[in-house]
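Q: My labmate handed me this sequence with no annotations at all. I'd like to see what the chain might look like in three dimensions before we decide whether it's worth expressing. Could you predict it?
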Amino acid sequence: MSVHWWTWGEPVTGRLLFAALLSGALAVSGCSDEPAGTTSQPSMFDDGADQVMMGVEHYLTRDGIRRGVLHADTALTFEDASEVQLRHLEIEFFDEAGEDRGVLTAESGVYDLATGDMTVRGNVDLQGSLEPGPPSRLETDSLTYAAASDELRTGARWTLTHPDGTVERGNGLVTDPALRQIQSRDYQVTAPDVEVPQ
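A: Here is what I predict for the chain of 198 residues:
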């Protein structure tokens, strides 16, 4: 089953919409021909989740404009929680004209229902470009998307590989989803076929 988890504006609206989607997902999942308790596979409810959705798609919007699409294999919610836990996710980012800006993948993430912010972890990979051709590639352990400012941030070590083979490494970073504007500290650049003085 695939669940389309549409965008929300105000936090209350978002929670109501999310609750409605979960109710529908649970109603469908309850219509199985298999007797309860016959599966031997570990349950995602073992993690303490109250509700689980499979095959989630969610539109990220800003000022009424679609700025991204989130896909996740699994979404878990917990009673009285203001966040959604995601597993095996991908986010496609778009600019104001609807053009691709970048694609972010990660093993897990936490989505804040009130702010729209998201923190992702585990093999984080962002490939971003506003121009035709191969994208630049950012790799790190964790990354936070701030919805209000449309920025991605990390305090972890990171590696950025450009299409021409130039590699940047640093600690801590602020950038846009297209990897066009990068602010960092304590970083070094390695360019191909350039001898670094000793």
